[in-house]
Amino acid sequence: MAVTAKAPAAPPGPETGSGSPLRLALVGAFPFPLSQGSQAFFEAQARALAKSGDQVTLLTYGRGSEPLPGDLDLVRTSPRVSPRRFASGMSVKKPLADLALLGTLIRESRRRRFDAILAHNAEAALVALAARVVTGIPVVYVAHALWRHELPSYGPPGLGGALRGLGARLDTGIARRADAVMVVSREAERVLRTVARGRVAFIPPGHEPSPPPTARATAAVCREHGLTPGRFVLYAGNLDEYQNLDELAAAAEHLDVLVAVATHAPHEAPQPLLTVHVADLDEVRALCFAASVCVLPRRQPGGFPVKLLLYMEAGRPIVARAGVVDGLADGRSVWLLDANAGPEDLAAAIRALLDRPELARALGRAAHRVLESDHAWPELVDRTRSLVEAACAARGAERRVPGRSES
Asked: What backbone phi and psi angles, to 5 degrees, belong to 146?
């Protein structure tokens, strides 16, 4: 049995793009709500589309770690068939959870007559494609990652080659079967464009501007976690292997400044990193605004680290690897390391920014300007709706989907 949290009916919004409001299902095969990058992007996209006037329904697993959002139309599967483990990766309960999500999606599709499905990440795409066999509803695959890069991080090192090959087949298979593909990185665009049959569009996650935390609120969060504003380096996000936190820990050995890891994960980051267990996004934002430098040690291309939006919002100088931070330019809005740079190089970049505060401030200000120019939701919503309409056309729609009759 599904659990539904129904948002109040909203008045029709202004028309966007080429037509009337779309009826959209956003499907996430993950716990929700949860303070993690994929879920944050999923929720933010839903709000942006709803704000534009579209009718948006979210369908997810039946468990999450935070209060349900009262402003969104959310349908979750029964908690009894949802994984208790919130961390990324594989779980023995996943197949049952995905079957329950499939059944929920088919039932809700018949009730709500969706125009299209936006399937976030590979697992949700497989569920949506299975539902399409029954419902005929077009599927837009929202590719959060390239699985040829990410899947090996969830298995033992000895299976790295096999998992890489499996990930590549997963990337190719879903892209070929989806009616359209939304990618969040240029690398994924380059790879999936060669195999996709439908349209592929690069549309990065957006950001909704909000007031920065007050100095008092920032100081309170820092005090709670034993930190001093402006006296620590920050990584914010999950602790999965593909984040390369072992290299950040090795870099911290060469620094005289504290390196903190803000995470929702229940376990600890490698020493000597200081693990800060955050309760919600507000705490993460406060820590970003309080940090002297923000770091992104991951090597793998293909996705968009949603934490990067928070770094940019805070106007912090960012150290990252080439190929991971689309839109930021080395020496102008970010300090980029070579993809193969080691911990000593990471430490040297952090140290250089700490020693050159004027450069650090300039990079942070430029990164904030990129956020404002490249990640504004209104434009991204227009591009998303255009992609959805292309997916509907690819399904062979005989009439314009947004204005179709209810017969």
From this structure: -100, 120
